[in-house]
Amino acid sequence: MFRQVAIIGVGHVGFRPLTPDLSYKELMYEAAVKAYDDAGVDPRSDVDGFVTVAEDFIEGTSIFDEYVPDQLGAVLKPVHTICGDGLHGFVAAYMQILTGAMDIVVVEAHSKASNVLTLEHVMAYAMDPVYNRPLAVNPHFVAGLEMNRYLAETWTTREQCAQVVAKNKRNALYNPAAAYGADIEVDAVLRAEMVADPLSRMDISPHADGAIVMVLAAKEVAEALTDVPIWVQGVGWCNDSFSLENRDWSAAIYAAKSGEMAYRMAGITSPWQELDFAEIDDTYSYKELQHMEALRLCRPGEAGPLTEEGATELSGELPVNPSGGSLGMGHLLDASGLARLLEVVLQLRGEAGPRQLPDVETGLAFGWRGIPTTSGAAAILSN
Amino acid sequence: MGMRKVAVVGAGMTRFVRRAQETGRELAYEASKMALDSCELTLDDVDGVALGTAPDSFDGVHMKGEYLSDAAGAWRKPFLRCYVGGGTGVFAPIQGWYHVASGLFDVCLVVCEEKMSSCQPHPQGAFLTIFDHTTERALEPNLLWIFALEMNRYMHMHGLQKKDIALVSVKNKRNAADHPCALLGNPDITVEDILNSEVLAWPVQRLDVSPVSDGAVALVLASENVAKRITDVPVWIKGVGWSLDTAYWTNRDLYYPKYVEYAARMAYEMAGIREPRKEIHVVEPYDPFDYKELHHLEGLLLADKGDAPRLTAEGVTARTGNMPVCPSGGLLGVGNPIAAAGLMKVAEIFWQLRGEAGKRQVPGKPITGLAQAWGDLMQVGTVVILGIHG
Question: Which of A194, B106, B147, B348 is deepest in the core (most CB within 10 A)?
Fold first, then answer.
């Protein structure tokens, strides 16, 4: 039997396309202060451990871990970095509490994407240096290839993908933290400049800056500190093959395996019936559909038609990305997964404002680390 | 509440070399395979993978963890990469520990890989980018400089001379002569050799410093019920600890590593150790520079402040001494592929406690051992305590 763990505090800054007025340290500090205040904890005396997620090349600093403790109030405390999505950092924090050695652990993720002037050049260094880098492959080109494969295998259409963009940008209009809300039609997405056929400019989520901090606590502590603990019911994470050459290009195996692990822990057998809503990675429009199918929210090929019918809208049967997702809020690099989780927490607490879903009890968050990775992580929360 | 027990049941290690012909992925694969073979497991038995590797700028691979993931056995498995700079090698098994201790995993493969030779002309170039971009980077500080500052401060506070410290380098390079994977083992090296080597940044001379190297190390961790099925001699993780100090290293007194003390106290408490000097029988502190071994022994509370050089001079820390320190040969002798070197220290304690260290075996059947690493901007301590009694 696992120890019960809850999220007892959340704080975020942003999300904005540019933050020339704030350094990454200030973003982290502000989000942390809000989260500690929300949870009613003092980082110096109450928190047992800290986890941050970061990648050196994105930060522009080698061994970025050095610059984590000060602005989190974590000096001379157990702190470590996970090079992963925010949800990977979250599962690392969660596991530390499950061991019984720690009662309160904090996880932080941030994006200062606007500081990265040449993201595509940085991403080129993520390609296998022997096999792929000499080809100078653009990550969006790889996504275009994958989208083609996914559309062909599942009979999904470009229009259905465009529907995802329209839905998420419309949801974002109801989210004051979202940077890219818009009332647009499917045609606008289809007519947008082609980046890597069949991927248009509007199928790709634009970047934003911001920071998110969450405070996790074991049941005994959580119940003493908050009236609205949001319980962790299950977590799962998984990598598929790193090689472009021998991975599965149509089904997102990493998402399927992540979901399988999280559902098993949470005792969920029919996700569509048992989940009230989901926040799912939509770095690219087709990814929301592909991930929905991999996460068994529907059968392969059904996500497109369901989206077309409106089943995943705010008023639909299973709302997907009520926050607006990365397409509407802005892609937060490795903080994206934690942004998905943040929305699940806010919805379950009933604090989602004009986009609040009625009577929600259980929600799923899923994050993916982007091209060229096959790295995903999932978490299921309930109130 | 009682914590779930976690054991180390297998270990594997590639040779540490100046320039490996293998790619980083191949090194990670080799160490992982050796570790699994050593306890007769296959990838099918592995539930998840915890990986450690230091700066991406060494190999110029962005998201290096993802690049290494399937080579380290994480194909279609849960995979996390931890990162605490130079402390990563001893943190990775801590990460593996919390995977298993959480109850979510029964078998976790821990892999550390480093390939520094890709960085040309020298990996020191990669370290130019670890400094604060506003206050420090403009000065173009070099790692050797800042460690020279720290070494100076340590020598000054305790009235030490270079020859007191060179003894560490001599001991470790001699110990490494018995390690089949070592890069710089030398049974005949003397204090004069150290003192006569090229000055890099006074008081740091070439032979005070560990070499840059390529290599990989892997461990297999298992829960109690699985460990007892796999082996008759599981080595238990008795305690873990880690602590990260402020990034503003210029505001700290560098003569004493408080973060190592905090990490050690956390690990001692978990292991129920009250008198570390009596209860720790073999030690692998982090020794990328010879003075660091002394510095860390003091931080680990295994020597009084300023007293570690005396223990070294009197042979207490020799392989046959009362408290053998770096019987493997340490980073100074075996080599320093950063994350892999840290995990090598945990592997050495594993082999020493099992009595499998061959010519490096310390006498007296040690029961409890400690491995420690250090990293970031003279800032982080990571500690693992292993023991053969559950």
Answer: B348
Exposure b/e, A36-71, CB count within 10 A at least 16 = b: bebbebebeebbbbbbbbbbbbbbebbbbbbbbbbb
- How far does A111 lie from chain B, in Å, by closest CA? 16
Domains and CATH numbers, chain A: 5-118+209-230 (3.40.47.10), 120-203+231-382 (3.40.47.10)
Query: How many domains would you assign to chain B?
Result: 1
State the CB neighbour count (10 A cutoff) for residue B299.
Answer: 26
8 A C-beta contact, residue B197 and residue B348: no
Whether B262 sits inside 8 A of A56 (CB atoms) is no
Longest Cα–Cα distance of chain A, Å, equals 57
Q: Residues A202, A168: contact at Cβ < 8 Å?
A: no
Q: Which domain holds residue B308?
A: 6-121+211-387
Q: What ipTM describes this predicted complex?
A: 0.96
In angstroms, what separates the C-alpha of A265 from chain B's closest C-alpha? 9
| Pairing relationship of beta strands B79-83 and B107-115 according to DSSP bridges | unpaired
B158 falls within a domain = no
Strands A199-200 and B380-387: unpaired
| Beta carbons of A62 and B99 less than 8 Å apart | no
What's B379's domain CATH number?
Answer: 3.40.47.10
Contact A209, A114 (CB under 8 A): yes
Q: Does residue B199 fall inside a structural domain?
A: no
Nearest to B235 by CA among B247, B244, B227: B227
- Nearest CB neighbour to B85, from listed A66, A101, A122: A66
Measured distance CA(B57)–CA(A60) in Å, rounded: 10
Give A-chain residues touching B262 at CB under 8 angstroms.
76
Residue B275 in domain = yes
pLDDT at residue B390 above 80?
Answer: no
Mean pLDDT of successive 10-residue stretches along chain A, which has 383 residues:
94 96 97 98 98 96 96 97 98 98 98 94 92 91 96 97 98 97 97 96 98 98 96 98 91 97 97 97 98 97 97 97 98 98 98 97 98 96 97
- The model's pTM is 0.97
